């Protein structure tokens, strides 16, 4: 297994359908509970574990998941309301070093609960036409709403796998 990508890299169908969106939303709907089951009762020592040498700690991963999902959610809403908005890069390594990444993880679990509730409500209202709306990322180029929902779901599972690897050590 590739520890960097334990569930594989993001795979998005060439044409994203509303059925694809529903599958991803199902994963998102149970995510915070599954994450909480893994991390809620961890000690500081366990929260300091890493999944590979030089990687983020479990604590940093939980905070990163919330930070990243927040960024992706905002981009999703921008794509749905603006005409191909330009969005800046999310410099995740710098965000992971900011002081709030040392807070208790409960704050980020609460953020995730709210973001995921919003993503599900938004996702359930999408039309086929809206799936093709786009935003332009300053580094990665044009990204569609359908692809962003796929990444929201994949990203959570990707880091949950990292957390499970770290805790198994």
Automatic annotation (TrEMBL):
Name of a matching Pfam family: DinB_2
Annotated ranges, domain DinB-like: 33-163
Molecular function per GO: hydrolase activity
Coiled coil (residue ranges): none
Keyword entries, A-Z: Hydrolase
NCBIfam families noted in UniProt: PRK13291.1
Protein name: Metal-dependent hydrolase
Source species of the chain: Jeotgalicoccus nanhaiensis
